[in-house]
Design brief:
signal; 8 helices; disordered C terminus; TIM Barrel; binds ligand LM2; glycosidase; single chain; 4-stranded antiparallel sheet; 8-stranded parallel beta barrel; about 450 residues; binds calcium ion; Immunoglobulin-like; alpha/beta
Length: about 450
């Protein structure tokens, strides 16, 4: 059954969205494991509609549950999971289980299908379109439905995608069979795509059929006054916390000093222990409500803050460089090319300030925020118990000051930048925090991430 708990001592998840399996495998070995990441989220692994690589979103239109996709084949997928596990990194797969492709065509794996007919898997009777369950005559979800009734949101079609009748025994079994196949290949958990569009009762039933104890986190986008709320899903798994990134954008374009109380008390936010946080994901970076790599230093600094703050399970996003919001990643005949950092791929997760903060996050686990100070709206500093201390400057000029750190006297390496910090016998440090930069120190005082803790994998 599903494990509704964060995944252990090393819980930072790198979201290597649109990366192919060979590149994820290499990244686990060379960067994610050594930096102290505990997990990696990978793109939907099932076969899908193909648009020949022209768009990124074809992979959100499943054509079947075999594992030939634009990211690689089943043996490459399995090899990736083994490589990540060997590096101490768990693998979470993006599970597209609310719907199938809304367009008849062919797939990356060479299958032919029509809307509502996916040979050997689903036929028209398996979709809400052929029952009376939707409530809208055109069978589509309309914008106004979200503040209306859950029935429309969950039984009608999301942008015309064939909506699976997840109340049905056969459909529940087929979805669970697909997820169990991934678990059999070593997958440790799932990001459940479009969870808002499937009822918690149906999802809970499906999760109950899974082997092992996969970590489940669900995409339920918060909207004020909506019929379907993230809190309806926290009894069956964790949720992706969409308010988190919205608030961070607001405050990094306003006063970060407002973040003193940031967490569950803020409107719409879920309990820390149920939340996976992210500054950006593939949808929000193409929208207007969140920060993205296009915001430059503020985006990186917000990620530094995320890894320092004691709320939720942090996810660090990394996709490809884009200007056309529909364009797909670099590809050859539709199949995604190996990721090259700095050449078509962003790779924030490799940034030394970010890997340093992954080590900070792991070192301060379980400690409370203390020693808060905010000399002005753009500068904040706080400790995590007596294990770590950080100062963040979102201003356009450097800031010099003396701060209480909560740490023992000594000289420490700055894991979020360069140079050293001296803490005096009174626990104070006098530092200059660079513009749009940070100074962070960890008890023990080195830039080396804490030793890897042995992890137990599912399977
Ligand atoms: C998600 N979460 O709930 C994903 O995070 C999001 O990226 C997906 O939308 C969506 N659910 C479905 O899995 C993306 C993309 C859409 C795209 C769909 C399906 O944002 O634009 O829709 O994937 O590929 C596309 C066309 C749309 C068309 C639809 C059906 O853009 O115009 O609607 O396919 O053919 C007629
Ligand atoms: Ca649905």
């Amino acid at each position: 059954t599903a494990q509704a708990a964060p995944p252990g001592d090393r819980d930072v998840i790198a979201n290597l969205w649109s990366w192919n399996w060979n590149s994820v495998a290499r990244e686990c070995t060379d960067h994610l494991g050594p930096a102290g990441y505990g997990g990696v989220q990978v793109s939907p692994p099932q076969d899908s509609l193909t648009r020949g690589g022209a768009v990124w979103w074809d992979v959100y239109q499943p054509a079947g549950y075999t594992l030939t996709s634009k990211f690689g084949n089943e043996s490459q997928f399995a090899a990736m999971v083994r490589a990540c596990h060997a590096a101490g990194v768990r693998v979470y797969a993006d599970a597209v289980i609310n719907h199938m492709t809304g367009q008849g065509s062919t797939s990356y794996g060479g299958a032919s299908f029509g809307k509502y007919t996916y040979p050997g898997l689903y036929s028209p009777a398996d979709f809400h379109y052929y029952s009376e369950d939707c409530g809208n005559t055109d069978n589509l979800i309309h914008d106004g439905d979200y503040t209306g009734s859950a029935r429309n949101v969950q039984n009608c079609e999301l942008v015309g995608l064939s909506d699976l009748e997840t109340e049905e025994e056969y459909v529940r079994g087929a979805i669970a069979g697909y997820l169990n196949k991934l678990i059999g290949l070593g997958v440790d958990g799932f990001r459940v795509d479009a969870a808002k569009h499937t009822s918690p009762a149906d999802l809970g039933n499906i999760y109950g059929r899974l082997s092992g104890s996969p970590y489940i986190y669900q995409e339920v986008i918060y909207g004020s006054g909506e019929a379907v709320q993230p809190g309806q899903y926290t009894g069956i798994g964790d949720v992706l916390e969409f308010q988190y990134g919205r608030y961070l954008r607001e405050k990094f374009y306003g006063n970060i000093s407002d973040l003193r109380t940031f967490g569950e008390s803020w409107g719409g936010m879920q309990p820390s222990g149920r939340s996976v946080t992210f500054v950006a994901n593939h949808d929000t970076e193409r929208g207007t409500g969140a920060l993205s790599y296009k915001d430059g230093a503020a985006y990186r600094l917000a990620t530094v803050f995320q890894l320092a703050w004691n709320y939720g399970t942090p996810q660090v996003y990394d996709g490809f460089t884009w200007s056309d919001r529909e364009a797909g990643p670099p590809h050859t005949n539709g199949f995604v090319r190996d990721a090259v950092c700095g050449s078509g791929w962003e790779c924030l997760h490799r940034d030394p300030a970010i890997t340093g903060m992954v080590g900070f996050h792991n070192a301060v686990r379980g400690t409370a925020v203390a020693n808060w100070s905010a000399p002005n709206g753009n500068v904040i500093a706080f400790s995590r118990g007596t294990r770590g201390w950080i100062a963040i400057n979102n201003g356009t000029g450097s800031h010099a000051g003396t701060f209480p750190t909560g740490l023992p006297a000594g000289t420490y390496a700055n894991v979020a930048g360069s140079g050293t910090v001296t803490v005096n016998g009174g626990g104070q440090a006098t530092v200059t925090v660079p513009a749009k930069g940070a100074v962070a120190i960890v008890a023990g005082g080195t830039t080396t991430p804490p030793a890897q803790v042995p992890v137990t994998f599912n399977v």
